[in-house]
Amino acid sequence: MPALTPLRKPSPHVPWLDGLRGFAALWVVLSHVRILTGLPGIPVLSWGGLAVDLFMMLSGFLMVHHYILRRDKEPWDSVDTGIRFWQRRFFRIAPLYYVLLAIALLLGPWLGEFRDAIAAVWPRTATAPERYLDQSLLNLLAHASFVFGATPEFAFRTALPDWSIGLEMQFYLAFPFLMHAISRLGVWTVAFGLAIACFIAIFLFPAFFDRFEMPSFLVLRLHVFLVGMLIAFGLAQGRLTQALMASILILVLSGLVFNLRPVVAQIGVTLCLYYIMNDGSLPASRHLAPVITRLRALLSGRTSRFLGNTSYATYLLHLMVVLPVAGTLAQYDAYVALPAVLRFGLVLGLVLPVTLALSALLYRFVELRGIQLGRALSSPVPRPAK
Predict the structure, then answer these.
(1) 359 and 310 in contact (C-beta within 8 Å)?
(2) What are the CA-CA distances from residue 200 to residues 152, 226, 249, 281 (Å)?
(3) Is 10 within the bounds of a domain?
(4) Range of the domain at 100
């Protein structure tokens, strides 16, 4: 079996990823506010799903990036490495998620009333009432165990946009096995082999996969995570251009299974992400260097760091702020009569400061403590000297 190409040691922190995470979270917020205020579709603003794809690419990149950093201390073929990885990721995701999940299930019927008020004005925005009304123990257990994303019945059954969280946890579960396979077979073989296997499964079993209202099952989105993983390997191996070509090919192949229109947008996001991460080897690097340098500085600034730190909380929380505001206003004729852009601006101006403030508190008092606990539990216990 071919050995893994020798890896160059990457930098511990990639500061401009903070801004990218914050930008992706704001993109999702703007997209949902657009829907819930009756603003007609607008290119880019309407593509909230593409923002989630960006999150997945960033996740794929960061998981490989840190796995490479820890490789000397945490070998990829060690069972302990996988266990430590799962501990860190669980405590990174679960504490905040459990807090907001409990609130979302408790307040579900109340939030559903606001959602109904919005749908009464703009019927095309309506969603299934079960998303807000299901307070069953089975729904709670499905979400608390993170298996909900793999089940069509529960994948979209809370007031949170958490379908992607279930998807993320499936990726984390599979990730140590993916890295072990890559160490044995090589990144190109594994990436193309897995992507094609997923596409074949979707093609052969459309009745099953069509039951998912959102692409919350890993088979439906593994190719997007693979794009981020290829960026990390391309940088580490000094083969970024080859990784870019491989990423575009995987996305084009996905268009044969899904739809070519969103694939064009995914390729655009992929190109932007590759050039932001550019090590100087991509085509036209010299000409684009000034633009990339300024963009990296913008994405690494103080505001971007704040948005990046609070991005997970912002993503999970925002609908529980948007729905009461937009739902209350939708019951007033004067608000409904406003131009759509003014409705959008009014709701956004009301909900964004509250969402960011609450997200900052959640980050400080819930997320950070969970991260610290995960690191402490996953740290190897020093052996006593003999």
Answers:
(1) yes
(2) 20, 16, 16, 34
(3) no
(4) 16-378
